[in-house]
Amino acid sequence: MKHRNLLSLLFLTLSSLSVTTPTNSFTQNHPLIADHNAGSATPFTAKAALIRHWNRKIPTNRPKPDFFLSKASPLSSLQSSIFEKLADSNTLSSHLPQFCSSANLACFPDLQNDLSVHNKDANFGSYSNVNFTNYGSGKVVGGVDSFTKYSPDDNVPIDTFRRYSRDSNNHNDSFANYESDGNVVTSNFTSYGSGALDGAGEFTSYGEGSNVPDHKFSNYETQAADRERTFKSYADNANAGDQSFKGYGRKGHVVGETFTSYGNNSNVVGSGFDGYGEDSGFAKDSFTSYGSNQNVPENTFNSYASGGESGSDTFANYRDNANVGDDTFTSYAKKATGAIEEFSNYGQSANVGSDTFSGYGKGAQLQTVGFKIYGSNTTFKDYEKKDQISFQTYTKPASANSETDAKRIRIEHLVEAGKFFREAELKKGTVMPMPDIRDKMPRRSFLPRSLAEKLPFSGARISDLEEIFKAVRESSLDRSMKQTIQECERKPSRGETKRCATSAESMIDFAVSVLGNDVVVRSTESTAGSGGNIMIGEVHGINGGRVTKSVSCHQSLFPYLVYYCHSVPKVRVYEAEILSVENKRKINHGVAICHLDTSDWSAGHGAFLALGSGPGKIEVCHWIFEGDMTWAVAD
Q1: Dihedrals φ, ψ of 57, to 5°?
Q2: CB within 8 Å of 40: residues ≥ 6 apart
Q3: What is the pLDDT of residues 420-466, one digit of tens each?
Q4: Mean pLDDT for the stretch of residues 65-94
Q5: In the 8-state DSSP scheme, what is residue 67?
Q6: What's the per-residue H, E or C state across 339-407?
Q7: Coiled-coil region(s) at which residues (predicted)?
Q8: At 324, is the secondary structure helix, strand, or coil?
Q9: How far is Cα 426 from Cα 542, in angstroms, rounded to an integer?
Q10: What span, in angstroms and rounded, lies between the C-alpha atoms of 608 and 611?
């Protein structure tokens, strides 16, 4: 009864707060909302509690770094207590807007629902985070909808187009500069253009430069007739995302897809084509410069064009100069009639990837398949009617002891200039490129340890976590949450000691457990010089430049700050003045770490691609990026 009364009082306190915004958030004038800067001077804030914990664990008189303290939770003790009680009673999700706003979290935006039918032309400029349902459905004749600069530079955009342009006639759609330069973007096109007649859809510079893009096209233009889609500069220069085409163009008639410059220069991007063009007639699909210069692309074509009639697929300059990568064609063109597949300059990756054709063309009739200048390391399993396949200038796999197989090819364009460098370059007067070290993660704060420990953080309780944060299932941020937990639960590598810090106090405890209580945490001072050439000024080796241990902590993508911290043996840590090349004035103070033992690193690691060597043969150095940090024993 006592607990129930206390909880009722807490709910009464929350419900009595003034509501002045559509998000039902706490007002900034309410006493429960402590100003971040003003609150730091009182003993009743999470930041003050963090400082007390630091003093207990690291009893030195050295000043505490602002970059670290700035990540402390802005919550007051009273706020923390309220949210802890809500977590205990499993009702925190009911107050998510207040929780996210007060604690400075990166939560999932609520989509504005619009279920009405819109049958007039529209021009959407500088628009974001909207659910377009039944939009453009049933347009009788003609019309054009234009989405220009939609969700640009947004942090966590989530855009949904459901039943868009369904059963329309000669309706054109244009998506230009859509979700460009966004962070953790999610797009969902469900039943888009289904049953449409004529018209065209164009996606230009879609998701370009975005971080962790996730685009889904489900039942896109199913049973459509005489429609053409063009994907130009789609997801170019993106980082670590996935594109999914499920049931795309199924049972369509005279439909055509053109993918030009799709996912080029992207890092670790996966594309899935499941049931794409199934049972369609006279479909014409073209993949040109698809996945060129990508780093570790993975593309899956499952039941692609199965049961189709007189279809034509062309793969030209597909995955050229990519690093490694894998393509899987399962039941591709199965039971198709009169299908034509042309692979030109396919899979000419700079470092050998793998291609698997399983059940390809099974049961097909009057099929023509041509491979012209096709890459190595390819498996054709259960490929029907091999006598109908034409191979021209097919690259045979090299022998294991050949010079081609033994010597890895340098692919500087796949790794940003300056991201990795050699230890000898850290000397006064060196001019070198500096990578983009800007923090591209959503801005968030730690949670107080007492609150973080009450929230689920394990693979076994991922559904509870999704419920608390009202995660959009299988969105980019939802997948990132899962990946963060998977990485945290992964067994450490040989010689690695690791822990995921879900609070600032937890990070301090881990660093002290590895290095002792006389430690210093460092990070590069600013982002000045980022993305251009810099000159190295005075260089100082930590601990006299001796081989030492350090604890490096890297941000993970999660609603609140979570750091992946690990200690690896045999490193040297340096501080270096960063100067302007033009006037040689100091513009930044950099922190770099050099890994002396790389023998356990993957042969496909970006460092070896950039520096032209292999595991265990060279040391590898890199800057500590904005938002990351490294701990070391004090000088």
Answers
A1: -85, -30
A2: 47, 48, 69
A3: 999 999 999 999 999 999 998 889 999 999 999 999 999 999 999 99
A4: 96
A5: H
A6: CEEEEECCCCCCECCEEEEECCCCCCECCEEEEECCCCCEEEECCCCHHHEEEECCCCCCCCCCHHHHC
A7: none
A8: coil
A9: 13
A10: 5
CA distance 583 to 534: 11
Q: Is 277 left (phi over 0), alpha (psi -120 to 50) or beta?
A: left
Angle at 317 between CA 209 and CA 233, to 5 degrees: 25
Residues 187-208 have pLDDT tens digits of 666 666 565 555 666 676 666 6
> How many C-beta neighbours within 10 Å does residue 59 have?
9
Identify the top-confidence range among 50-59, 126-135, 363-372: 50-59
Q: What is the mean pLDDT of the chain?
A: 74
What residues form DSSP beta bridges with 379?
356
Collapsing DSSP to helix, strand or coil, 135 comes out as strand
Structure tokens, 440: 């591209």
Both tokens of 95, joined, read 């107050």
With 0.85 as the threshold, say if the pTM is over it: no
Half-sphere exposure of 207 toward its Cβ, with a 13 Å CA cutoff? 34
DSSP 326: E
Q: Which two structure tokens, joined as six digits, stand for 357?
A: 């054709």
- Cα dist. 108→159, 432, 467, 555 in Å? 12, 39, 12, 19
As a whole number of angstroms, the distance between CA 69 and CA 56 comes to 15
Per-residue confidence band for 539, with pLDDT thresholds at 50, 70 and 90: very high
Distance CA 579, CA 550 (A): 26
On the 0-12 / 13-18 / 19+ scale of CB atoms within 10 A, 551 is buried
Whether 166 shows a pLDDT value over 90: the answer reads no
Per DSSP (E only), the strands in 15-143 are: 112-114, 122-125, 130-133
Strand bridging mode 562-579 / 497-501: antiparallel
User: In which residue are the tokens 């001796």 written?
Assistant: 546
CA 502-446-239 angle, 5° bins: 80
Highest mean pLDDT among 237-251, 492-506, 576-590: 576-590
Assigned token pair, 344: 């030109």
pLDDT at 263: 63
